[in-house]
Amino acid sequence: MNRRRQLVRSLLDAYRLPWLLALCVTLALWLTAPLSVARLDLLLYDLLSVELLSEPPAGGATDTRLPVVVAIDDASLHALGPWPWPRSRHAELIDRLSRAGVAGIGYSVLFAEPSDDAAGDAALVDAVRRAASVVLPVAPLALEGGGVGALEPWSELAAAAARLAHVDVEIDADGLSRRLFLEAGAGSAQWPALSWALIDVSRKSRPLAGLGGRRADDGPAAGLWVRDHEVLVLPAESWPPAQKSAADLLAGRVAPHLLRGRSVLVGATYTGAGGTLNTPLSALAAPMPAVEFHARAYAALRNDRYATQLSPVWALPAPFAVLALLWWRRPHARVRDLFGVLLAVGLPLLLSAALLSGLRVWLAPATVTLGLSLGALLWGTVRTLDLAQRLRRANARAHATLHAISDAVLQFDRNLNIHYLNGKAEALCACRLEQVRGGGLDSLPAIELALRETLQSLLQRCRDQACEQAVSGHVQMPAGRHGPARALRPGASPLFGRGGRVEGVVLVLSDVSDTVAAADKLAHQATHDALTGLPNRVLLRDRLRQALAQRDAGMVAVLFVDLDRFKRINDSLGHQQGDKVLTTLASRLRTVCRVGDTVARWGGDEFMIILQGLADRDAVARVATKVMQAVGQVITLDDVDFRFSCSIGIAIAHEDSDDADVLFAMADTAMYRSKSQSGAAIHFYAHDMSAGTRDWIELEADLRNGLDEDRFEVHYQPQYELATGKLAAFEALLRFRRHDGLLLSPGDFIAVAEESGLIEAIGDWVLQEVTLQIADWSRQGLAPVPVAVNVSARQCLGRSLARRVEQALRQSHIAPSLLRLELTESTAMGDVDHVAALLADIRALGVHLSVDDFGTGYSSLSYLKRFPIDELKVDRSFVRDLVSDPDDAAIVRATVALAHGLGMRVVAEGVETVEQLNLLASQQCDLVQGYLFSKPLPAETVVAEGLLMPAEVPTRNLRLIRS
Description:
By secondary structure, this protein is of the alpha/beta class. The protein has 5 domains: about 1-45 and about 310-390, no CATH class; about 65-300, no CATH class; about 405-515, Beta-Lactamase (2-Layer Sandwich), CATH 3.30.450; about 530-685, Reverse transcriptase/Diguanylate cyclase domain (Alpha-Beta Plaits, 2-Layer Sandwich), CATH 3.30.70.270; about 695-945, TIM Barrel (Alpha-Beta Barrel). Strands 27-28-30-31-32-33-34-35 form an 8-stranded mixed beta barrel, surrounded by 4 helices. The radius of gyration is 57 Å and the shape is elongated. The protein starts with a helix and ends in a 19-residue tail after the last helix.
């Protein structure tokens, strides 16, 4: 039995069986009900052709692509006599049309035999021959012995006609005529249709050959009427042809320009003429005369408003491909399922409409559409059953999930009576669902009054406002006989019924006890020092801001306590003993201070104390003294007694500042004043303490911003050869422009840059700026000279300086000989081995080296000999008193002799008087620079004043001033 159920379940798969049934139904309809389905296909064609094939030509009623019907109507019979007319009258009609200049004449009147009027017959033959564009009809004729023959014009008339054409019209399964065969005939398809032949005669070509679908073999078949090239030529709504009465034409009442260049069909339309056809238009009007049908067929063929019908077999592959895709995919999402079904059912119709509109091909869709519709119905049925089964499974899973989750879930009806409890709710509330079903919150034993009121209010708001409700934070469930205390986070969601009405409320109680405990622990860790348990900077700042807000609570003081020489403990006894000292001192500081005061660890061996509610500064000083005494008590470490001292800085709130961070900084500044006096001192903050510190900090911040804002500048001071007076080099001198526009020299900011570590970034910028400026002078066609760049001691600490110099040279593409580096004598003698290796790397790049401020340090000649130095620069302090101080003159003279002896050049900087210049010249100094010649100039001023000459112009000599 189980195996049988499994088989049935597999057969009723929601995506396989319905579409297999749809395939079977489609094939059955196609094979067993062709007539009824064909009628439905024709109805669909009529509906689609109204939109896709009924648009008239742009030229309107006078368009030469539309034919004119010359009707032998009731008025013509009344004016010219009863039917049949003499054949001479037909000849006159043809002559009239020929003289009007028509393109072709299609005659739907059959002249099978000669008449008794030989003259009239001859006149008709002559008129047809003269017109040379008359198409005469041929009709199928049932033979007495069986079979079908052809009823043709008599031989003389047939020979005179331009073409013979058949007038056979197909009658569809619904009894309506909307199609014809472009070629037909007895035994073989030898004659074109009347409308097609008229197009052929009118256009002197055969543009429609090869259209349509074959209905018979290519070879002749005796006794059979053979049809070929079937087309649908009559949409459900097509434009009517222009119609002129034969009487009006013969009477000359039809203007020739209405006929000129157009094709004309002549036929009988009078009442009782016979040969009328029922068409899709018959529902709106009377049966259509045959000549009008042929005229409409002409218009459809001539204006590409016809369709070729394909065999219904061609409709099968596309939808079957869709069925196969749906079978293979078997989607699970309902929206995707719906799109798949709509696509499967509507595809045949959409495909037919697309082919009819784009290719004028009609593909009958009814068979496949009916089959797919039945498949869709079956699919919907099985899908509903499948969804019901899934819903049952989903409910089972939801029930299991609700009992497995760690949250307590309680469901209430609209009256807030209990309807459902999951397992966690039963355990939390200490009851079973059967015991409390239908009761309210008061029936839950573990929910006490305060918590019950909070939850009752939450449920009522959720029901009345029809939206989710929650309690900010968590609620506390106190400990009792039903269990320990718990922290709960409640949330309520409405249950909606039909029409959006709230039918109940779901209450979820999440036990967040562990989370709250962990959060409390994290909050304590975030605001307290891990070693001492004291508040950290975050909590300290918050406490001070609260104290500052209470202006009427007495004086508030901030004490910055720093242990003196604490580093000795960490270095000698280890950090474990150092931590013991800190925890001991933290405990002592808590003891000294009151309950309302705050003792915090600032960092390392620094503590911060906030005192509140004190009367005056003396009271603050007394507390600070107690703090020093507590710190000074003995601490035993490894059986050794230690005594510590501390330095204390004090800032008073509201007197010194109202800002917490500023007060901390002021206390820090006062503490450093205590440190500067050998420690173990107490100092209150004074405003003159922070002036220097504040200026230093502000300048450091300004320098950092200046790098980003490009406020550094390089000025260039020329150096001249004393022997020739030629420009020999420039020294690059750094300047910094502050926000207020003040331009600072290096002496104003280099110390700050060195201590803050900015000097490396600034030095890199100067290298890049100078090398790029040399490259720019070269691009301007000027003859550049070497430029000397000062290098700080910090830049020489590692070996990266050589790499940075190489990178600057590579980026600027200048010759290395155009760059010189200057380092101070103290820098060169700091770490001789390291500096020697660094300078060798730089010299290998082709960059020249100078020792600046020579004579101010304590150079060792043996070390100086090891360096690849090209120049020695005599410090300006020796040049300044060169004329008046014999010692300075001796130093300069010795420096020149030493440099020349080592193969180096000498540069004297700071030359400001002619006397200095003359004395330097007498001592054989090589190069000079100073205000006597030029101040340091911006790069653009160097070019503007012509210090650099074009490369092809000889260098201009400086006329040195000599006494």
